[in-house]
């Protein structure tokens, strides 16, 4: 390493450290004086209250601002916010998933640049945060980068595998790539008369009874360096999209029961239920599900591994959800709200709620901590996702594509052509 390289590396480290110090100082100072101790912030979220309750109490005690947290149904959260804004009874902040925040960013207030810049956020948090919550917009005829939310945690998609079933088929370790995944799935599956699935090798191939079908499909597509929404709307990534559709739907195509990877159909239970019954060898699910599975199903011997990758890929790619906190544009206490958001995402507070969630940190300093498992370190640092302006449309269209191809009604190319025509019609109506 030459002298110039050493100087560049040292300078980069100084910038990162400075950003973390600045962010920490900003999140630990006194909030704006907006009352006599009776001030409050209203927060709506989709996560359990017990994850944050002790932190809410600490903030109220230290900063004299009461935090009211209301748990909302994820399915009706968007409509709840719309109705609350219309009646001027909206919360100050929301805690939600990445898809929700990106799709509803027109209702959010961007992080003030005087508080923290996009560059600060890039230095403090993992790459997926910038990919998801930083956007270039046009303000006063000039491009400007804005930050829509601050991340709380990264929840990667990981591979759950039944150790007893693997031992039965004489496999000692989970598959590291998709080639080995197919082999393991075929070894594990058991088909009865008329190709009835007695034991499923893996949970892929369908959408109607695989709740995380979109997440699994997105993982496969990201590993091909392709974008889901762009692929559904236009002919972008045509080859990659057709390949992933074919790969995924083959697992649910009964016509390939004897010659292919068929292992799933619409008549069996959802993956989590089937896994706990010992009738499923592998499933892809969020890491946060691990503690629940261990507590409720002590009879199941299972392991958790990194999601499979493309064989011989130079760089691993993992899919993850990012839960974050954002301030609503209609909030009457935006300065205090952003102070609370920064405080909640600081190193000290994150270290408290992360064990309760079972997910990976969003902060680089906590990702690098020695106490974090290698699995969470790798999946957090290499987590990716693409922005979706219409996540609900994408889910519905992708479901139709998967089911039509798995049933043999359409080819991948035909299903894409049909979907793009329908998508154009919807967008033209807006």
Automatic annotation (TrEMBL):
The keyword Transmembrane helix applies. GO terms for molecular function: maltose binding. One of its GO terms (cellular component) is ATP-binding cassette (ABC) transporter complex, substrate-binding subunit-containing. It comes from Candidatus Ryanbacteria bacterium RIFCSPLOWO2_02_FULL_47_14. Belongs to the bacterial solute-binding protein 1 family. PANTHER family: MALTOSE-BINDING PERIPLASMIC PROTEIN (PTHR30061), MALTOSE_MALTODEXTRIN-BINDING PERIPLASMIC PROTEIN (PTHR30061:SF50). GO terms for biological process: maltodextrin transmembrane transport; maltose transport. This is ABC transporter substrate-binding protein. Keywords: Membrane, Signal, Transmembrane, Transmembrane helix, Transport. It comes from the Bacteria. The chain crosses the membrane at residues 6-26. Signal peptide: none annotated.
